[in-house]
Specification:
Elements (H helix, E strand, L loop, with lengths): L7 E3 L4 H10 L4 E4 L5 H6 L7 E4 L9 E4 L1 E5 L4 H5 L2 H6 L1 H8 L4 H4 L4 H5 L12 H6 L28 H7 L3 E6 L2 E6 L19 E7 L5 E8 L10 E9 L5 E9 L6 E2 L1 H7 L6 H14 L10 H20 L4 H7 L5
Parallel strand pairs: 1-3, 2-3
Antiparallel strand pairs: 4-5, 5-8, 6-7, 6-8, 9-10, 10-11, 11-12
Helix pairs in contact: 10-11, 11-12
């Protein structure tokens, strides 16, 4: 049995109290929501905080409000969102993303805020302490070399969050709170393409909520490639949100790739090729090619990187066909191995 390291546990009851506690020693403190990412990492000694601040006793973090769009507290569990009919009706792509994360048991513990802040993953990093010590550790924790590409000046661990690409495609924002104040930023601005310093959230900030703008008139879809059909992290994904005219032309579209870089990766070239155009097979194929061109998967997770890159075409194609209104149930079952 791998045991947790020693730590001090604090359980504030308000966001202000949590922010004040975090401000005392932000470099030695970590936040615990559902714990499905942090606790295994602590057992493997990937993260060894001196203080852990539990957020489960803060009621405001567990609220979902439906008005002009959706306001989702960062502490809302993925299971709660999966069962929320308002979410499924307003943002089918976000429902699809949430419903494909982990297992029902884990979704009932894991939170949407936790998935947004999910630690980047890598074959050389997500191992036991003894395994990592045997290779002289890696750049992300205790070492100096990125074993994915030994000449790389930065860590190449991959972003494996499902919620972030879809929320970015939906144009969502997040609220960050610290003892010094608060700020609101686009989901796209929450991430850096750096496996170690992948979040722009400061160590003294708490992600408290997500705002999804009104999706009336928009369609969305999320497609994910993974090894196991029942549950697994994505090794490539495509999130698409679009607004079509009454005649079927694309008025606006956002295409975001997941698990092919250290951050969710927008594809502005693919988007530009679709605006003002009907979603014909040729246009969809061209957009998929343009998205494929920017995908930069590395040899740091499941499947061969060349094949993962090729699958970006298939994922973007499937998502755009779903946006068009095609019946993609059979394709989703064969490619994503899930019926939603």
């Amino acid at each position: 049995m791998i045991r947790l390291p020693r730590f001090e546990y604090r359980a504030p009851e308000t966001i202000g109290e949590a922010a004040a506690l975090l401000a005392e020693a932000p470099g030695e403190t970590m936040l615990l929501a559902g714990g499905t990412d942090l606790v295994p990492n602590m057992k493997r000694r990937q993260q060894v905080p001196r203080v852990v601040i539990g957020l489960r006793h803060i009621p405001s973090l567990r609220q979902v409000q439906n008005g002009a769009g959706l306001r989702i507290g960062a502490g809302v569990t993925l299971g709660t969102l999966e069962r929320d009919e308002r979410l499924r009706a307003a943002c089918p792509g976000l429902y699809q993303a949430v419903a494909q994360i982990a297992t029902p048991q884990l979704r009932n513990m894991a939170t949407i805020g936790g998935n947004l802040c999910l630690d980047t993953r890598c074959t050389y990093y997500d191992q036991s302490y003894e395994w990592r010590k045997a290779i002289d550790f890696c750049m992300k924790k205790d070492g100096e070399i990125c074993w994915v590409a030994t000449s790389s000046p930065r860590c190449l661990a991959v972003s494996s969050t499902d919620a972030a690409p879809m929320l970015q495609a939906l144009g969502a924002t997040v609220r960050l709170v610290s003892a010094a104040g608060e700020r609101t930023i686009e989901v796209a601005d929450l991430y850096r393409n750096d496996g170690m310093h992948y979040l722009t959230r400061r160590p003294d900030e708490i992600l408290t909520g997500i705002v999804v703008p009104d999706q009336t008139g928009r369609r969305s879809a999320y497609w994910k490639l993974r090894r196991r059909g029942s549950f697994d992290f994505p090794v490539a994904s495509a999130a698409v949100s679009a607004r079509l005219s009454p005649g079927g032309e694309v008025e606006d579209v956002r295409i975001v790739l997941g698990a092919v870089a250290s951050r969710p990766l927008a594809s502005p070239d693919a988007e530009a090729g679709l605006r003002g155009q009907a979603l014909t097979d040729d246009r969809i194929a061209d957009a998929a090619d343009r998205a494929y061109a920017i995908a930069k998967p590395m040899d740091n997770t499941d499947f061969e990187l060349v094949w993962r890159k090729k699958m970006v075409r298939a994922l973007v194609t499937a998502a755009l066909r779903e946006i068009r209104g095609d019946d993609v149930a059979a394709r989703r079952k064969s490619l994503a191995r899930q019926v939603l």
